[in-house]
Each structure stands twice: as C-alpha cells, then as structure tokens.
Amino acid sequence: AAKARGTGRVSIASDKLIASANSQMLLEGQLREAIMNDQLVLHYQPVVGPDGAVLSAEALVRWPHPERGLLYPGDFLPVAEQGDLLGELDRWVLRAAFTEAAEWPQLCGAILGGGVGIAVNLSGLVPGDPEFVDVVSASVAATGIAWDRVVLELVETSLIDLPSRSREAMAELVERGVRFAVDDFGTGYSSLARLKELPAQIIKIDRRFVSGVATDASDFAVARALVDMARAMGRSCVAEGVENATQFHVLRGVGVDAYQGWLLSKPLPAKEFREILKLGPVHIPRGT
Ligand code: C2E
Ligand code: MG
Ligand code: MG
Ligand code: MG
C-alpha cells in the first residue's frame, strides 16, 4: 500500500502487518520448539456419569509460554495450523496423555483408575492419514495404556463423507477397543439425520445447546431429540460445557450418559486430576 502511494516509505499500517507477520513466524518457531522439547502441558477435565462417578478425562493442551504466560488452544491452534504443526501436536498429545493415564491404576487403585478413559482431541492427525492406525497403536504400545480406555475426539466435519480407507482405519482401532467421539456435535453441517452415518460411538453435545437447555425451549428440544436418536442408534451422549446444576438435572432428565463442564470441574493439571480420582465421585449440587 505504501508503494502504491509512491512515497517510498513504509506506512504505519504495513508496519503493523509486518510486525504481526513477524510475531506469527516467531510464535510458530517457538511452538515447533516447544513440541519438540516436551514443553507443552496437558490439563485433564473429568467426564462424569449421572451419579458423579469419574468415567474419563479429556486431555486439553496448554502452552506455558516464557513471555506470554499460559496460552490456551484458542491462542495457538491457529498458529499450529498455519505452520502445519497440528499433526506433530496431536502426536505429542497422544503420547503425553497416554503416559499420564497409564499411571492412574497404580496410583489410584485398579478399580478407580483402571477403567477411567482418556480422551484426546485430534485435528491434524486424521483417519485418512496412511499412518493413522500405526501412530495411535505406537502410542498405545509405548505407554501400555489399555486399548479400551482410549477415546479419540474428532469434529463432525472430519467424520462426514469419509472414504472407505478412513472408515477401515477407524474400524481397525474400534476392533481393538478404541472409541471415537464426535466433538461439538451440532456445530457442523450435518443434521440429526446424518448421525447414523457418523462412525463414532460417542456423541458430544456442543456447549451451545447445553447452555440453553434449561431456559430455551428449542435448545431443550434439540438436546432431547439428539439423546433419543443417539440412544436408538446405540451411541452414548456426553454433554459439554455444563455450567450449572439446572442444566445438569435437565440433561439427566432426558437421559444424557455423561457430563463435562465447570459445574463438575474445570480442566486440572495432572497432579490435581489424580487427587480428584482418589476422592471418588464428584459432588453434584442439587438443582434449583
Ligand atoms: P473441545 O474439545 O470442545 O474442549 C472443550 C473446551 O471447553 C475446552 O476449552 C474446555 O476448557 C472448555 N470448557 C470445559 N467446560 C466448560 C464450561 O463449563 N464452560 C465453558 N465455557 N467452557 C468449558 P479449551 O481447553 O480452551 O480447548 C478449546 C478447543 O481446542 C477444544 O475444544 C479442542 O477443539 C481444541 N483442543 C484442546 N486441546 C487440544 C489438543 O490437545 N489437541 C487438539 N488437536 N485440539 C485441542
Ligand atoms: Mg474435545
Ligand atoms: Mg467439544
Ligand atoms: Mg468445543
């Protein structure tokens, strides 16, 4: 733009652009290093049953940045995507989450920790990748986690119209005991009717519907229809973003299988999540 104006000077606007492009490149390099040097951390958010029993944990990645403080996925996933680092990130998370979860049975007793699932979000590594089955299998083998504790979360858009190769890769893992979850269900393009085509055992109802379930008649209707359909198709339902007791009790009333959200627990550092496991069922406040 500066050139077009013919001043030969760099305008303030393009200075800013250059600065942000530079800081983007800087962040990208730093993120690559952080992944390679094991400097990311995982927080674990409990997923509980209707009675508060901890059924699984979702691993959520954070980046303790030396200058910028603790960064959340919203801050750096776009950087990872831009830098083509999502696949590397996913591989790191798989390994780190399974390593942590593999210790729960020893620390918390086989009954408490042994059956607790570990859910990992995948966005760079997808079932269509030729190495998908091998990468997941190698993480399982290296950490010794039981196959039936593994949950892989994928967003709806990466699960529709899958080529048969992807479906076969998923089926191979399911055969060994892995479960797949559709994350943020309801935010993608597919309608309720397409639920049947989604190759996933678990449906995660997006926070957007959960937030209105006690106050908005149509959100309630969507949630109820979703749960009914999921059940008819042999899938289980997890509600995301449950923030208050009213939402929890309304959802329990329609038969949601599992619950995740700040009402029950925020995502916790590994050490604090272990304490939660030792305490047993999470306390559920009464409805209002
Ligand atoms: P998600 O998989 O849908 O994860 C749930 C998000 O909702 C998390 O945000 C969690 O902290 C937040 N959350 C949990 N309970 C509540 C609640 O009651 N209220 C509200 N308002 N929010 C709640 P987070 O950790 O910032 O992660 C955001 C997204 O980034 C995730 O959405 C997921 O898509 C992605 N992500 C997180 N960790 C990873 C990872 O390790 N790998 C990949 N590929 N993506 C990740
Ligand atoms: Mg998720
Ligand atoms: Mg989600
Ligand atoms: Mg989400």
UniProtKB/TrEMBL annotation:
Q: Where is the EAL domain?
A: 24-281
For this entry, the protein name equals PAS domain S-box-containing protein/diguanylate cyclase (GGDEF) domain-containing protein
